[in-house]
Amino acid sequence: QDVVAASGGLVTPRPLAMAGAVEFVDGKRARATAEGSASGSADGAAAGRPGKRPTLGEELPDEVSKQDIDRMLDEADEVHIEVMNEGSLRRMVMQLERRVKTNQELRIKFADDPEKFLKSEVDLDEEVKRFTLLATHPELYATFLELQAIPMIIGLLNHSNTDISVDVFEVLSELTDPDVIAEVEDAEAFVKALLDAQLIQMSVDVLLRIDEEASEEDAKAVSNALTMLENLCDISPTACCTEFAQIPKLLPWLIKRVRQGAMDFNRVYASEILGIVLQSSAECREAMVRLEGVDKL
How far apart are CA 227 and CA 209, in angstroms? Predict the structure, then answer.
């Protein structure tokens, strides 16, 4: 097998005792001889192997050459699998803090030159998306609360780059999945932390900024936001729906979304969320009357 050093250097691989042996030239694989290449192609054709080489993760053909097997094993060795535990979660939170700080500093320093802070924005976006892994480890939610990462993540909903806000919605829709929350030791504390960090108010602010017709990603962001609201209603209906009633722009947004636009997924989804909220909270029903929501619908 190939051995890749931590510095990125490449140790000379074990020799292959077959035609078409592999050597490395400037860090890239190359055929040792033209005869070996021709022989390898002929062997593949004789075995009925398709012209395209099989790739790791693809469905394999009925017959695969030893050379392709060795190559795919080498590729598998280079695949990094994230191991989530308390230590790695702490490192993720610390890394996110650094990414946020770096991005803020570069945005201030190069306010008139977005190219200078573009990479920091991409790095921050990727770091945010990593937190979807937490949904597969409900036993770590207590540590997540202890690290006070929730206000930082929710705070990114206010980021000037809407793409980052969109990914925060995706993360939160995963973290609030009722099936996951059912395995969390203190689910009420988690939900309370979300509400205390002004999740609903900030979510509405983002929804008002998003243009669903701009792209499929924007439409998906609205879907994720609605999923998150539905999850919260499912986890703690009274507390969450009472909180919803305190957010001045939430019911008007839901009413408007149900009234306008084509009969698409998000329009139907918004009507379902509105129904859940009205059934679960007397305060929301009173607000609906004040807004003349029934007449508008």
Answer: 18
| CA–CA dist 270, 263 (Å, integer) | 11
How does 214-231 read in b/e, with b if 16+ C-beta sit within 10 Å?
eeeebbbbbbbbbbbbbb
Share of the chain above pLDDT 70, in %: 75
Please enumerate in sequence order all residues whose Cβ is within 8 A of that of 99, keeping only pairs 6 or more positions apart, or say none: 120, 123, 124, 127
Beta strands (DSSP E) in 159-284 are none
Q: Read off the pLDDT of residues 135-194 as tens digits, 9 standing for 90 and up.
A: 999 999 999 999 999 999 999 998 988 889 889 999 999 999 999 999 998 888 999 999
pLDDT level of residue 99 (50, 70, 90 thresholds)? very high
- For 30, the 3-state DSSP assignment is strand
Helix, coil or strand: residue 127: helix
**187 neighbors 179 (Cβ within 8 angstroms):** no
Residues 6+ apart with CB under 8 A from 171: 128, 129, 131, 132, 153
Is residue 40 predicted with pLDDT exceeding 60?
no
Token pair recorded at residue 71: 């190559």
Is the Cβ–Cβ distance between 147 and 90 less than 8 Å? yes
Q: Which single residue is written with the structure tokens 């017959």?
A: 63
Q: Among the residues of 110-215, which ranges form H helices? A: 118-129, 141-146, 150-155, 162-175, 178-181, 187-196, 199-209
Return the SS3 of 161: coil
Assess contact for 181 and 137: CB atoms under 8 A. no
Pull the structure tokens for residue 172: 């939160």
Residue among 196, 207, 180, 287 nearest 240 (CA): 196
157-181 b/e (C-beta count within 10 Å ≥ 16 → b): bebebbebbbbbbbbbbbbbbeebb
User: Tens digit of pLDDT for each residue in 109-124?
Assistant: 998 888 888 999 999 9
